[in-house]
Amino acid sequence: MDYKMHFKRLKTQPGFVMAVNFLILMVIYMLSRWAFYYMNIDSFQDVTFSDMMTISWGGLRFDLSALCYLNVLCILLQFLPIKARHTPKYQKIVKIIFLVINILGIVVNVADIVYFEFGGRRTTATIFSEFGGESNLGTIVLHSITGYWQAWIFGIAMIAAIVFLYYNPIKKKRERADFPPNKVYYPVHGAIFALAMLLALGGMRGGFGFKMHPLRQDSATIYCKNPHEAAIVLNTPFTLITTLHKKGYEDPKFFAEGQNLDDIFNPIHNLTPKGGEMQKLNVVVFLMESFSMEYMGYFNKDKDGGRYEGYTPFLDSLLTQSYCFQYSFANGIRSVDAMPASFAGVPRYIEPYCYYFYSNNTLQGLPEMLKQEGYTTAFFHGAPNTTLGFKGFSNSIGFDSYYGMEEYGQDKDFDGTWAIFDEPYLKYFADKTDEIAQQGKPFFLTVFTASSHDPFKVPDQYKDKFTRGEIPMHKVISYSDYAIKQYFEKVKDKPWFNNTIFIFSADHCGVSCRDDYNNEMGRFLIPIFFYTPGGQLPVKCDSTRLMQQTDITPSLLSLLNYQKPYFSFGKDVFNTDSTFVNYVFNDRNGLSMYYLDSLMIEYSGNKLIGIYEFRNDFSLKRNLLNQKKRFPQLPFMQRQIEAILQQYVTRMKQNRLTAR
After folding, report:
1. Which phi-psi region, left, alpha or beta, contains residue 275 (left: φ > 0; alpha: ψ -120 to 50)?
2. Whole-angstrom Cα distance, residue 38 to residue 40?
3. Which positions ≥6 away from 341 have C-beta within 8 Å?
């Protein structure tokens, strides 16, 4: 009888109330983890049930940490040694605070089920920079709700669970009268309060070891086989909270202080004069939204027994008249990574440059360099002018003019969510190109296509024309390919056409539906090629030289016979010097990859974790880490990637991203 009485009294203690509701949240977060995995299963095809058990076990630490951060105020209120805690009015206030905070936590956690497919990682505090200036944010959010209703139904169910399962036995409209004497109540409950706050602090840190570092995002990798899988271990409230006051890159300390890194890898290009004047050819760059190499028939002629057609008939035909590369790579995983890489020689490392702490550094942009040589420069993107900060960044690297949705001025061609449809916008771009050309100056123009993007819509008149494909992305890729064709139909007979270099590059890869591309190399393979209708370059598919977005500026400047120093982490792929290093560097959320000729190595946590002969192992199935002695070039490769990382971090912190 005494046991039942004590348990009944325990159930009405505010601390017990907090503990029960906290456990309910832990269950909800674990269910959210499994929903996250299930709804993004194509990105985690190698994860077994056993792996998920390990991941879930590790995830408990991150859930506990996030919930301690979110609920520290409620924990404090429920354990304060004051008698007012036991009244219905007090508990009602705590309940409101608890529900508001934790419903927000559930919302951002569920939102990442949707967003992960496009961002490739759990959302961090950079999201506030990324979408802080969006004028059409409401429309985008509305589409994410309607387009991914399964995720939001799950989220609503979790919110309903926390509301209806909230445990609160202190409902009677009377105060408790059976408190122990004050000399007992306050010391006992004071000690319980101190213990509760100590436990909460340990939960936030992920443990109590004095020598242990507090939990960080990279701590999640210890519970998974692949760093990419850390997204399942983590939860979004944790990644948001723990990056709010992030201080920037940590020095990897690969090389001793005073050692001259420039002797190993130097991002300053001091060109050897070739003689003659600069060739002031016009330049038009197409940055194509989400155009994976996977989607193109030209690069996949051997797939499906030679029957693979792809979804880009026009670009496939243009490639037969261009200088292209069998292996060409993105240097990032988001749209905002493409411009710093392509036009300022800055690849993504862990975080997007534009949204990280160093985004105010001075860059030496290609548009500014060409503007100093007498070029007219302009950037075109058919989305609202605040989208992804493109307008601000284009200004910072030297584009004279920006032509966005506002300048286009025809809302009837808006897709309703994201941007102007590509066909009318590229026809507009064709007219503006000719208008700028008539000014008599050489020009450097860039257009960023938009329709091959969620919400995967084509204009109503083309609904029956573009229907082929396995996933929604395929039809909009075909539509964008058709839109690019319309641009060339309008400009091919213009007097400036043959005096123009056309450069094509995707911004990043889109959604994959082929297993052979669903790996760390395939997620970066994009088309990059040069079309020179005036014959400035030969027609060729180069299968030996590796191309990346950071190579665009050095290679173009080489074609133009530019002879001034400049900064870039890329290389000139047309360099015929015997010292040429045929490399590519890219990074996926801290998993860094370095390619040299036919070998690729992976670094994670500043350690070598993978070696692949990618030309003979396209799907990266065979990690040759235990066969290091087979590769005499390995020490050089390790020294190079370590020098790149060291240069990147050091120069980023010291604001040394120019040749000046």
Report:
1. left
2. 5
3. 330, 331, 332, 347, 348, 548, 549, 550, 552, 570
DSSP helix/strand/coil, 528: strand
pLDDT over 50 (residue 1): no
Examine the pLDDT at 211 and tell me if it is beyond 60: no
| Nearest one of 388, 370, 614, 372 to 503, comparing CA atoms | 370
pLDDT in tens, 124-170: 776 665 566 666 666 666 666 666 788 889 999 999 999 999 998 87
- Candidates 242, 237, 240, 229; CA nearest to 54 is 229
Q: What is the pLDDT of residue 392?
A: 83
Q: Is 464 left (phi over 0), alpha (psi -120 to 50) or beta?
A: alpha
In the numeric block, which tokens belong to residue 288? 């194509």
The DSSP bridge partners found for residue 190 are none
Residues in Cβ contact with 629 at an 8 Å cutoff, skipping those fewer than 6 apart: none
The Cα 339–Cα 589 span in angstroms is: 18
**Its pTM surpasses 0.70:** yes
pLDDT per position as a tens digit, 534-549:
999 999 999 999 999 9
Q: What is the DSSP letter of 180?
A: P
Instruction: State both tokens at 258.
Output: 């005073």
Structure tokens at 188: 């006992």
Domains of the chain are 9-241 (no CATH), 282-654 (3.40.720.10)
d(CA 587, CA 347): 8
